[in-house]
Write a structure and sequence with these properties.
The chain is an alpha/beta fold and 77 residues long. It has helices at residues 12-21, 40-49, 66-69; strands spanning 27-30, 32-33, 36-37, 56-59, 74-76. Helices cover 31% and strands 19% of the residues. Strand 4, helix 3 and strand 5 form a beta-alpha-beta unit. The chain is globular and about 30 Å long.
Length: 77
């Protein structure tokens, strides 16, 4: 079947630039980014693509707040 292409961003700034340039089928988000909280990208995604946003999966070493869990497809600790 199809192949998956994995595109990585190590900073929020890089992630924002990538999200501006292309559409993704899934966003896997790490909350702990070197230049801030990856959760800032949730608001950015909403502004950028509105209802057509890709699903977001949070991968984190710590638990995710309940209000954040409602904004994403899944949150894995």
């Amino acid at each position: 079947h199809g192949k998956a292409e994995v595109v990585t961003a190590t900073t929020i700034r890089q992630a924002e630039a990538l999200l501006k340039m292309r559409r993704f089928d899934l966003v896997i988000l790490d909350i702990a980014m070197p230049d801030g909280s990856g959760l800032a990208l949730l608001d950015y995604l909403q502004q950028l693509c509105g209802a057509a946003c890709p699903p977001v999966l949070i991968l984190s070493a710590s638990d995710t707040a309940e209000e954040t869990k409602h904004r994403v497809q899944a949150a894995l600790v």
